Amino acid sequence: MSIMTRCSALAMLAASAALGALGQPASAADLAIVSGSVGKDIQELQKHLDQFMEKTGHKVEIVTMPASTTDQFGQYRLWLSAQNADIDVYRTDVIWAPQLHEHFVDLSEAAADIVGEHFPAIIESQTVDGKLVALPMFTDAPALYYRTDLLEKHGKEPPETWVELADTAAAIVEAEGNADLFGFVFQGAAYEGLTCDA
């Protein structure tokens, strides 16, 4: 299944499930998907939705959100708590399933034939209390950047495990003797605007 077909199938599946949860027929012609995407990402989503609409005859409107993922999450929670019926499909972040799951329908049965196309860990992260509440449109992963200049200066190889990372970072920080140098910096708070809003 191509990515275009998969995205279209997922969009239809999610829309049908959402409409079913609202007590409306799954064949409703007008749908709204809320997405925090901007720029090229929103253009790519629109391209897939255009193909979906041409194929199915459904009309899908993209409701855009602020670029800040913190603002998006707050708005989603507000709409869902108020049982806003204007939005049929929510495009969420992978980390939001535990906080929003009670507002979403169980996609387990409807998605049974496509779940195997995705990494098990992604499906597991979108399953809360045995209920599959979201499906991935794409998969992303964090990247680890390291300073080659400091590794070379201190005769260290790039770390390949978390233990090696901790040991290498501690050794370099100690050898540098610089109180303003941190061996490992990461985004530890729930806020992810630093990476998502860049």
Report what the structure shows.
The protein is mainly α and 198 residues long. It folds into 2 domains: 3-132, Periplasmic binding protein-like II (D-Maltodextrin-Binding Protein, domain 2); 148-196, no CATH class. Helix content is 43%, strand content 9%. The chain has 8 helices and 5 strands, in the order H-E-H-E-H-E-H-H-E-E-H-H-H. A 3-stranded parallel β-sheet has the order 2-1-3. A two-stranded antiparallel ribbon has the order 4-5. Helix 1 (3-21) packs across helix 2. It is elongated. Residues 1-13 and 15-23 have low confidence and may be disordered.
Mind telling me the C-alpha Rg? 21 Å
Unreliable spans are 1-13, 15-23
CATH superfamily of the largest domain: Periplasmic binding protein-like II
Instruction: Report the major sheet.
Output: 3 strands, parallel
Question: If helices are DSSP runs of H or I spanning 4 or more residues, what is the number of helices?
Answer: 8
Helix content: 40-55%
| Total number of beta strands | 5
The N- to C-terminal Cα distance equals 32 Å
Structural class: mainly alpha
Series of secondary-structure elements, N-terminal to C-terminal: HEHEHEHHEEHHH
How many domains? 2
Kindly report the average pLDDT value: 83
Q: Assign the CATH class of the largest domain.
A: Alpha Beta
Widest beta sheet: strand line-up: 2-1-3
Q: What would CATH call the architecture of the largest domain? A: 3-Layer(aba) Sandwich
The CATH topology of the largest domain comes to D-Maltodextrin-Binding Protein, domain 2
Backbone shape: elongated
Question: Beta-strand percentage?
Answer: 5-15%
